Request: fold
Amino acid sequence: MKTQDRTIDFSGRDFLLTDSFSEKRTLLPDCQAPDEPLNFRIEVANTGHVFWIKEICDVTLSSALARGTGISGRSPESLEEKIKKGEAIIAFASDGRWAGFSFISSWDNGRFVSNSGLIVAPEFRHTGLAKSIKRKIFELSRQKYPEAGIFSLTTGLAVMKMNHELGFEPVTYSELTKDEVFWESCKTCVNCPVLLSKERKNCLCTAMLYDPKKRG
Reply:
């Protein structure tokens, strides 16, 4: 029997979540061990996927509560808008079950982009799905905002590794968006007092940026 982690990413902040309480853990039978390959359908979301918004919101909230970390939520209405605009990625298992989700947020009139809301359903943790979704949402961001810098704030080593593989580099906070709407979303994080005490120059999260200008 094996336990799995859930992944979540909101407002440009990336987290690798582990359920803190045994009653919230999902135990998988040996036949579903993570080292066995699973097939997923990962695609750009469209209006036909609006049906899944409630489950996405519920799993995202339960993940944040299990981790005990403040996180910037997204209303069902805002997720519906992202889906209808084609600015989200959704994943399904081969049997049709919803498996994962992520969406794009743009800042400073499109100068910066964050890949937000990365969430994997509990039964599909440790399958490599989070990495696949992250790559797909990164590719969608590059397609829709080819000139934008794509940034991430994270405390997770696994997420840092994924970012590095995609071409992200560590940067100072001064190189990120100045959009006040983004920084307002940090107020729900338990580490916000640290951020404010340092005048938004740094915090516990590592800032990483993909700069298309440096990539040619």
User: Anything to note?
Assistant: The first strand starts at residue 2 and ends at 3. Residues 45 and 83 are 5 Å apart (CA to CA).
